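*** Backbone structure tokens ***
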Amino acid sequence: MATRRRVAVVGGGIAGLAAAVRLRDRAPADLDITVYEQSGVLGGKLRTGELADGPVEFGAESFLMRDPSGGESAAVALVRRLGLAGRIVHPTVGQAALAMAGGLCPIPGGTLVGVPGDLAKVAAVARPVPDADRDGGGPLLGPDQDIAVGALVRARFGDEVVDRLVDPMLGGVYAGRADDLSLATTMPTLARAAREEHTLLAAVRAAQTATPRAPGEPVFGTLDGGLSHLVAAAVAASGATIRSNAAVRELTPSGTGWRLTVGPTRAPEHVDVDAVVLAVPARPAARLLADVAPEAAQEIGGLDYASVALVSLALPEPALPELSGFLVPATVGLLVKAATFFTTKWGHLRRSDGLALVRASLGRYGDEEQLQRPDEDLAAIVHRELSAVLGAPLPAPVAGHVQRWGGALPQYTPGHLDRVVAARSALRAAHPTLRLAGAGYDGVGIPICVRSGETAAEEIITALEGSAT
């Protein structure tokens, strides 16, 4: 009688859960899948909470509707697979602003993560350096070249475009700085265009053309009732055994598979499995791989992360602008780097009692010390800084919540993708039944993490099928 195959998914974030669902869909029905989650909560950065008797996201807020290739994103495909398509809702207010010295200024259109495709459209916010983006007779980047976003944009458009547009856009997503972040990882479509086009303007326009969007087509979506519905549905569809509060401390080869050491040092549990999807951040993954795959561990172990805090406030009948929110350039000097007017942006969240839900994001890479303040101090700073940006005192909140995400956002320096390719190549050569998945390797955002987990699952299935022949 054939022995039942067992697969361990280490990490219960959306990448790990997407891997578990794909394993269930594609592998034999008798496959045993176990998800090991170190904390007591599944979903990673997807966490819906409650504030003033209403739902609010304490983590990721939404997902992209489309893939860079033009089709629906992996997140939307997963939502459909889980029977949740009827819950998808879109922003009812899409215009955001920049917090400048003179007040709020609408973010100009026609940009790609802040990089302009039409210099005239950004003139009200930033003055591009004239005639700097000249055709030098060849592509901006070599075939395999990567570069920091800030280095490229500063050389072509000048400092103001980076400091007032690109940096706050990237800071809102990655909590990092444009001068440190990899173009190939954070803006892959632009990086590909820059390897063909001779000017940055041409590269931006080519990147925009490569991912056309119909007029009025929504960019973002979320789920009515909260993204935790996606987590619960993925758990149910996977049919996996869920082990919460179960830290995997060691990973060692065992026969043709793997032995996991789970739990506290005083009372370890040893579990033998045929394959492993390692869907945890890069540094914990590197520690687990240090002895069994040192080359892979070295490639991924240097990835650093930024910490952030999300402060949500319920405000009684505040005077808010008709905006989805605003971004704050680091040069403005505020602790708040972004704010979302939830009940303005998302029509399904608007309330009849006049309460408005506002969420601010705090924390840039390297400024972790600023986040060590008590919750009440962070909430007071947010209230004060939001009032200053809006030009009038906001009413006192009737409820608030501070969600801290320590080491949440990967900081992809130039060459990141090459390091990940090297790590995965080393794993494939030595350990075909061990795969990496998650934001630490492929990028942030729900669609990317879903696709990363699904790809790892597909490769595990192929490896198991190969070992059975």
Notes: DSSP finds 15 helices and 22 strands in the chain. The chain has three domains: 6-42+228-303+412-468, 48-93+304-411, 109-199.
